[in-house]
Design brief:
mainly beta, Neuraminidase, 2 domains, 4-stranded antiparallel sheet, disordered N terminus
Length: 293
């Protein structure tokens, strides 16, 4: 029996599934060295950007552009996937962390001003929230609510898309970074206590990890593992969903972490269908006889 387009489709679907299942590269801002490092899933590293002044928060948009907070200059830099860079925003007052919503707007926690700013994709800005006391880590949930780890007050604040606010959690000891898992649980790096706390959607909390040294950036990969930048020890730790941990990388002053976006299934489907069509055309050119059983 000769192969048909049906079998080609099955093979291509398998390849696409395998590609999506592969790990993502991890990006890390190194506060002490002025670099952004890129790590492959097996821990191999390379320098993605250098010559920065105290890099802090990182965030990707859906196009794969990386945004970085430069602590000394108070600028936000934009890096294209091939490493090209430009100044996206300036004139801020001690910005710390970043988050991108589903519409591609960039949100910035500015500790110096006590504000959270929103930037559109073309750089236009507005004040999303003000009067805060030490906004630091930012993260969006799947419903579009923005959460802020407020370092100075020890609270986590929740902001609805229209700017309404409430206190989600309190009594923390130096919260600096946040990340959501795929189930909607919120994880918080408690810098001064050395713990990572886990919060369910209704605010219930538990200790996910302890004994860390000045934990900072958090990020989940597409396999559901949590990565933590351990500033004090100079290591990046990887945690499985049950809390088991391994040392993923070490050296330097890891600060914030980010993974690039995973391609949408619809995008992969379109690419796959196009590839199948090309395979069919190519097959026709090679062997114009119709397939027979």
């Amino acid at each position: 029996m000769k192969p048909t387009i049906h079998f080609l489709a099955i093979a291509l679907a398998s390849l696409l599934s395998a590609a999506l299942a592969q790990g993502q590269n991890l990006f890390e801002s190194d506060f002490g060295g002025g670099h952004i490092y890129e790590f492959t899933p097996n821990g191999g590293s390379s320098t993605f950007a250098s010559g920065l002044d105290f890099p802090l928060g990182l965030a990707f948009n859906s196009a794969g552009n990386l945004f970085e907070v430069d602590g000394a200059t108070s600028h936000i830099y934009k890096f294209t996937p091939n490493g090209g860079s430009s100044t996206f925003a300036s004139g801020l007052n001690s910005p710390y962390d970043l988050a991108v919503d589903t519409a591609g707007n960039l949100f910035v926690a500015d500790q110096g001003s006590g504000d959270i700013y929103r930037f559109t994709s073309n750089g236009g800005s507005s004040t999303f929230a003000s009067g805060l006391y030490g906004p630091a880590g930012l993260a969006f949930d799947s419903a579009g609510n923005l959460f802020d780890a407020n370092y100075s007050s020890g609270n986590i604040y929740k902001f609805t898309p229209n700017g309404g606010s409430s206190t989600f959690a309190s009594g923390l000891n130096g919260p600096l970074a946040l990340a959501f898992d795929s189930a909607g649980n919120l994880f918080e790096a408690d810098h001064n206590s050395g713990n990572i706390y886990k919060f369910t959607s209704n605010g219930g909390s538990s200790t996910f990890a302890s004994g860390l040294s000045l934990p900072l950036g958090l990020a989940f990969n597409n396999a559901g593992n949590l990565f933590e930048a351990d500033y004090g020890s100079g290591s990046i730790y990887e945690f499985t969903s049950n809390g088991g941990s391994t040392s993923f990388a070490s050296g330097g002053r890891p600060t914030y972490l980010a993974f690039p976006p995973v391609p949408e299934p619809s995008t992969c489907l379109i690419v796959g269908l196009g590839s199948i069509a090309l395979l069919g055309v190519r097959r026709t050119k090679i062997d114009p006889r119709p397939f027979r059983n």
